[in-house]
Design brief:
By secondary structure, the protein is mainly α. The protein is built from 3 helices and no strands.
């Protein structure tokens, strides 16, 4: 993009714009680091959920096959309680997988790519101001 840096009439004007532009760039850079960390965390959480889901489902299947054969009493109550815990774990892992799934990751990748373009444009803006400052 072509910037109308010729409207900057003094070195002080250039310095003021450079300060603002560099501050903006620092904010963008920090946001980029945060997005990269979030992307890594999302990938880790998604893989963790994928790994644990079959284990929890297997335990739940075992409880579902054993509990009907138990006589009424404290042992059956205990197994039903443990089955409810596994059902809760399954619910949590399923939601976790949905929250950290491919759609969320793809959205994060898009946001990161947009941010990288914005940083590139900010560098071009800073370069144009520096060129104008050097010309003054």
């Amino acid at each position: 993009m072509s910037y109308s840096v010729t409207t900057l009439q003094t070195v002080a004007d250039c310095d003021a714009m450079l300060t603002k532009a560099n501050n903006d760039k620092a904010v963008l850079s920090a946001r980029k680091v945060n997005l990269e960390l979030e992307r890594t965390r999302l990938q880790d959480n998604s893989m963790e959920a994928d790994a644990k889901l079959p284990i929890v489902q297997g335990r739940l299947n075992a409880y579902n096959s054993v509990i009907p054969t138990l006589p009424a009493g404290p042992e059956k109550d205990k197994q039903e309680y443990l089955r409810r815990l596994e059902e809760n774990r399954l619910f949590v892992l399923t939601n976790k997988k949905a929250n950290y799934g491919s759609i969320v990751q793809l959205d994060g990748e898009n946001e990161l790519a947009s941010l990288e373009l914005e940083l590139t444009e900010k560098d071009a803006f800073i370069a144009a101001i520096n060129a104008r400052k050097a010309a003054l």
